[in-house]
Sequence to fold (151 residues):
Amino acid sequence: MALSLQEVSDRIEIDDLLIRYTTAIDTKDWALLDTCFVADAHLDYTSAGGVAGDYPKVREWLEKALAPFPMTVHFISNSVVELDGDAAKARTCVLNPMGFPNPDGSLHIFTVGAYYNDRLVRTADGWRIRERVEEQAFLEGTLPEALQIPT
Fold:
């Protein structure tokens, strides 16, 4: 089945949105992160030990939770996108190596594998995430003993 020009454009814009999210998280660019969500978005990171709630609450938590990590890398792939006019659903695979500082200066590396289950909406400013539920699939390695995940 051939895609319309609008469908092709929507898929590229949604892909750009998902990449913008990972860039914002990995660079800790919180202003850029704000461009990924509608103001009243709902996020749920509880499957990975995080919090759930409205975007401002979860954004504040993300800033605290990621502050001790000098290195995170989010690889995303295999997005399955279902378009429905100005709304869409997406399920995206995530591979997320993270480095936590050891006392000797080296990094304790562990990797989270997950899925982002998103509901998206087209706004005047482009596609935005209305709802994100992270579904952790696996953890490779161990969490650092000194890691304290904020609540």
Remarks:
- The chain is about 25% helix and 45% strand.
- The chain has one domain: 5-140.
- Helices lie at 5-27, 30-34, 55-66.
